[in-house]
Every structure is written in structure tokens, then in C-alpha cells.
Design goal:
The complex is a heterodimer of chains A (323) and B (264). Chain A has 323 residues and is of the alpha/beta class. Chain A has a domain of 215 residues: Ribonuclease Z/Hydroxyacylglutathione hydrolase-like (Metallo-beta-lactamase, Chain A, 4-Layer Sandwich). In chain A, 34% of the residues lie in helices and 19% in strands. Chain A is built from ten helices and twelve strands. Chain A has a seven-stranded mixed beta sheet. In chain A, strands 8-9-10-11-12 form a five-stranded mixed beta sheet. In chain A, a hairpin with a 7-residue loop joins strand 9 and strand 10. By secondary structure, chain B is of the alpha+beta class. Helix content of chain B is 17%, strand content 28%. In chain B, the strands form two sheets. A nine-stranded mixed beta barrel of chain B has the order 1-2-3-4-5-6-9-10-11. In chain B, a hairpin with a 5-residue loop joins strand 9 and strand 10. The chains are: A alpha/beta (323), B alpha+beta (264). Chains A and B meet through helix 7 and helix 9 of A and helix 4 of B.
Chain lengths: 323, 264
């Protein structure tokens, strides 16, 4: 009982902290002490590694062409991230792929790109190519005053895409960058490494906490479910549903398909409960008071923010963003 | 002449009526059929429940506090956190997780057989439990609460054009849309309070449970049924708890192993 309570408190604390970080887009160099952050480089399979530390998980793909990163954590960690990458390959970082706009995933863009070299085509800065969906670029770009050129945004993606998918061939394997509309945000990308059989999901999938549906930036519960269903469609489990395609979540442990299924089921069940309550005329306050996530809170922490987001998302779904 | 015409018309009309099959619209009422005779499909025999989902809650006893997927309220949460299997054993309540709202989800086999023309029996080897599905019958007043409660059953009538044409009526019993005429509806009340999950997630004596048994045949010819269970419990659930559980027909009693209830 006591242990469980402690675990819950920890989960809640972590969730709140991560939620607060997530809610701050593109603010590299937060006033946060990174000195004690431990970086852990974990082999996934094939050419792909998982780098865990502060902020979102990073994916590192290495080979004879150079280094490709998915997400970049926070700017102050960039030198140490680079040192970890050097353990795998002496070659330069050629590509960075941003899964979405939040600062704990794009904070190191500028510093890490500067250490690298361009991918297939030259970049303005001469550094690595940064790929993201156009909605990420739009949200990272500050509106300019009338008649003036907007100021440059550090770490801004320089190779945005606006189609459903973008693909490239790097380090001997096809890599698909796939837009998942209106899920965690309106600019989410998942990254499929076809030969290494690994998918980086960004914050669409965070197995140790409820999803943060960033409604202000175009997120929605239906888009979140659509994206998770697509990830499940792309993953293939091995014997007894274990292993097979590996899934690198936005935060938390390395997973496989079964864990994505579990997560998708949880969101579907909670969505249906809240939908049923809305149909009976319950207000947001009444739905929150009913605690429709209570059975899952021991696993994912406090569900209050998630419940509120689902309630609002069901009542006011966003127009589907272009893909 | 006029009288003769009328008589002829009356005779033709009467002949027309008589030509209608019994029970058809406009025809004479049929004698009431027994439930067994009216069965649109045959549920009798041995069935096994392949565990294709929720393995971690069904194949092992979950840890205390693992309530995921059950829409519990705070009272249920507190009740579940106080779960103590040793106390249940000491009180002779090992069967709390084998009541009707849980039994179809417990891994094992069921044997379905007609006890009489209007009572279908479901025997479960897990916990050695027996359910009685009563057709054409209401719960007697004073019915005592029990693990399996009192179950009232109805066949879903086929929609027009489906199944036996003699049963070509609108689905007058069913409240569901899209009924295919191969389904059994059951409503269970008079339940003794028990557990929805073995780790102490409670349901109360106020629980009402609906079930829909849908029969189908797989491409290889094997019969299956899926039972959709809807548990309503205003005391412990914030919304109804819905599950669907699959059963596959077995040719005989092989694998039928009745076991006593276990609290752990």
C-alpha cells in the first residue's frame, strides 16, 4: 500500500513535470539543472539506438553515411549527446528529424545541427538537415510585423514536408517520416526505420503516462487514436506477441506492439467512458469528479488533465490538418 | 345472385385465411413454442474460451491495485485496495470471482445443455459453477441472491428475410439493432456481491447484467459464439463495464476439468 502510494506520487510528479516541459514549445535552454542528468545509450536493433536522458527520448541511427537523429532533447545537453553519439560513429550528424514542436524534443536542434553536415542538399547554415512537418515550422516561426522579415528562429527545420509521408534512404535502409494529423499536436511525425524494424513515435506514445493532448496546438483524442492504430498497423510482433518491431516512445521505456495496443485500448476505453458521460449531459466538472480514469491512475498517474483534454476534444474536434 | 357473389367472396377470403401458415400475419395464433423448439441455433455442447485478450488479468491473479479497464468509482477502488484473499478463504467466500458477471471471462470450458424445454444450463468447469437461463419465466418473488443470480433469457427473433421464414417477424424481443437472429439475450439479477476481477474489484448485490450471445460459424466450419457482457452496478461502476468473450465449439468433453473455486 505504502509502496504503491509512493509509486503513484512519483508517477504524478513525473507526469506533471513532463507535462509542464511539453507545454513549452521551442524553449531550448530552460532554467533547469542538467548537470546531474544521466544519458543512457541503448541498442535497439539493426542500426538504431535509443538515447535516454532529460526531455524526450532520442533515436540515433548510424552507418556508413553518417548519423541520423530523431529529436534532440534540450540544448544544454548537446555536447554530452554529441559525445555519446561519437561512441557509435565518428561520422557527422547528417539528419535530424523532429517528431513535433515541443521544446523537450527540439531544444537541441540548433546545437546538434551545427555540429553536423548537410544531408542530401545544402543547408543555409551548413549544418545538418532538419526535417519536420510544415506545421512544426509554422508553430516555431514567430509572426513577423507587417512588411518585415521574421527574425530567424534558432534550430528551425530547414527541410519541411507537407505530404502524408516523406522518405529517404540513409545508412543502407529506407526511412519513412509519416505525418500523423491532429494527434499529440498537429505536426506529429513518426519515423519508421524499415530495415532496422523500429518506429520512433514522438509523444503520440508515452507508455508511462497518459497522453498529453495539446489541444492548443491542434492535438485531438481521435487523431491520437488514429495515430496509435497506424503504429499498430506498422508493427509486427514476434513469437507470442513479444519483440518484433521495436517502438521507441516519446518518453519512457523501449516497447513493442503489445504495449502500444495496451495504450491504445486504454485511451479508447477512457474516450468511450467520457463520451457516454457527455451523452448523459454531464458537465466537465461532473466528469472529472466521476474519475473515469481511476482504474488506470495507478499505472499512468493522475488522469485529470487527460480527462479534461478528452472532454474538450470530443466537444470541439479540430479541423483535420493537411497531410 | 348478389348473395351468391358475397358468399363466394367470403369463401375465397376464408380459404385465403386458412391457406396462411400458422402464426403468419393474419393467420391463427400458433401454439406457444418451447424455448428449445424455438431455438434459432444450437448452443448445446462443450465450448472452450481461447484467451485472446486481457491475458494478464485472466490467466493470472493480478496484483492488488491493478484495476485497469474496469470503470470503478472511488468506493470500488477503496474496496479493491482492501482485498485480502486469506479473509475470503476464512469466510468460505472463495467463489466471489466466479459469479455470473465474471464467470464467462474465467479461462476454461463451458458445457451448455437443456435442463428442460425452457431452461438452458451453462456449466463452467472453472469453479464448478452452474448457470440456469430461464426462458418464458420471471424471477420468483423472494428469490435469494446467489453467485449466479437469476437469469431471464430470450431468443432474438430474426430480422425479416433471415433464418426460418416462419419466424419472419420484426425482432420484437430485441432492443438491439442489426440482430441477425442467431442471438440469445440474457438479463441476470438477484446476484450475491462478488468480484469482477480476482484481485477484489467488486460488484454489488444491486448489479444487473445483460448478455448477448452471438453465434457464428468460422470459415473452417467450426461454430463459435461471442458473449457480450454488460455489467450495470450503480454502487461501484461509473459507467457500465462491457466485455466480449469468445468461445469455440469442441467435439466432446475432452479437456473438461471441473475445479473448485480459488480465492488466489
Amino acid at each position: 500500500m505504502k509502496i504503491l502510494a509512493c509509486k503513484m506520487t512519483l508517477l504524478v510528479s513525473v507526469s506533471l513535470l513532463a507535462g509542464a516541459i511539453d507545454a513549452q514549445p521551442n524553449r531550448a535552454g530552460q532554467p533547469q539543472n542538467f548537470d546531474n542528468v544521466e544519458l543512457h545509450l541503448i541498442p535497439v536493433q539493426g542500426n538504431v539506438y535509443l538515447l535516454m536522458g532529460a526531455g524526450g527520448n532520442m533515436t540515433v541511427q548510424v552507418g556508413s553515411d553518417g548519423v541520423l537523429l530523431v529529436d534532440t532533447m534540450f540544448a544544454p545537453l548537446a555536447p554530452r549527446i554529441a559525445a555519446e553519439i561519437k561512441k557509435l560513429s565518428p561520422l557527422p550528424i547528417r539528419y535530424i528529424i523532429d517528431t513535433h514542436v515541443h521544446g523537450d524534443h527540439v531544444g537541441g536542434n540548433e546545437a546538434l545541427a551545427r555540429m553536423g553536415a548537410p544531408g542530401a542538399s545544402q543547408t543555409d547554415t551548413g549544418g545538418a538537415t532538419i526535417i519536420a512537418h510544415e506545421n512544426v515550422v509554422n508553430r516555431m516561426t514567430k509572426p513577423a510585423a507587417a512588411g518585415q522579415t521574421p527574425p530567424p528562429t534558432p534550430g528551425l527545420p530547414n527541410d519541411e514536408y507537407f505530404t502524408r509521408t516523406k522518405d529517404l534512404y540513409f545508412n543502407g535502409e529506407p526511412i519513412f517520416v509519416i505525418h500523423e494529423p491532429n494527434a499529440h499536436t498537429d505536426g506529429d511525425s513518426i519515423v519508421l526505420f524499415r530495415r532496422s524494424d523500429t518506429i520512433s513515435t514522438g509523444d503520440i506514445f508515452t507508455p508511462e503516462r497518459y497522453p498529453f493532448l495539446d489541444l492548443e496546438r491542434g492535438g485531438s483524442v481521435q487523431g491520437e487514436l488514429d495515430a496509435l492504430n497506424h503504429i499498430i498497423h506498422l508493427t509486427v510482433p514476434a513469437h507470442l506477441q513479444e519483440g518484433g518491431t521495436r517502438v521507441i516512445p516519446g518518453h519512457g521505456r523501449l516497447c513493442d506492439e503489445a504495449e502500444v495496443v495496451e495504450y491504445r485500448n486504454m485511451i479508447t476505453i477512457v474516450r468511450d467512458r467520457i463520451q457516454a458521460m457527455i451523452k448523459t449531459g454531464m458537465t466537465l466538472e461532473q466528469v472529472k469528479a466521476a474519475k473515469p480514469t481511476l482504474d488506470y491512475d495507478t499505472q499512468y498517474g493522475s488522469g485529470d488533465a487527460f480527462v479534461e483534454a478528452v472532454f474538450k476534444s470530443l466537444g470541439n474536434p479540430p479541423a483535420r490538418s493537411r497531410n | 345472385m348478389r348473395i351468391a357473389r358475397l358468399s363466394a367472396a367470403a369463401l375465397l377470403s376464408a380459404a385465403g385465411i386458412l391457406a396462411q401458415p400458422p402464426g403468419a400475419p393474419g393467420g391463427p395464433p400458433r401454439a406457444p413454442q418451447t424455448a428449445r423448439a424455438a431455438a434459432p441455433v444450437d448452443f448445446t455442447g462443450y465450448w472452450v474460451s481461447p484467451v485472446m485478450e486481457d491475458w494478464r488479468w485472466r490467466m493470472v491473479t493480478p496484483l492488488k491495485g491493478d484495476f485497469a479497464s474496469i470503470p470503478i468509482n472511488r468506493a470500488a477502488y477503496d474496496f479493491g485496495m482492501a482485498w485480502d484473499p486469506a479473509k475470503d478463504e476464512a469466510a468460505g467466500l472463495q467463489c466471489k470471482s466466479y459469479g455470473a458477471p465474471a464467470i464467462m471471462r474465467v479461462p476454461g470450458r463451458v458445457h451448455m445443455i437443456w435442463q428442460d424445454d425452457n431452461t438452458l444450463t451453462i456449466e463452467a468447469d472453472a469453479g464448478t459453477q452452474t448457470r440456469l437461463l430461464h426462458f418464458n419465466s420471471k424471477a420468483p418473488s423472494g428469490e435469494a441472491p446467489s453467485w449466479q443470480g437469476y437469469s431471464e433469457a430470450n431468443w432474438e427473433r430474426p430480422v425479416r428475410g433471415e433464418g426460418d421464414p416462419r419466424n419472419d417477424f420484426p425482432p420484437i424481443f430485441s432492443t438491439r439493432t442489426g440482430a441477425r437472429g442467431k442471438s440469445l439475450e440474457v438479463v441476470t439479477t438477484h446476484l450475491r456481491a462478488g468480484y469482477l476481477r480476482k484481485n477484489g474489484v467488486p460488484y454489488s448485490e444491486n448489479t444487473m447484467m445483460e448478455e448477448f450471445y452471438d453465434y457464428r460459424t468460422a470459415p473452417d466450419g467450426t461454430p463459435w459464439f461471442t458473449v457480450t457482457t454488460v455489467v450495470h452496478d450503480p454502487k461501484y461502476l461509473v459507467v457500465p463495464f462491457i466485455t466480449s468473450t469468445d468461445f469455440k465449439k469442441r467435439p466432446d468433453a475432452a479437456g473438461w476439468h471441473p475445479t473448485p473455486c480459488s480465492a488466489r
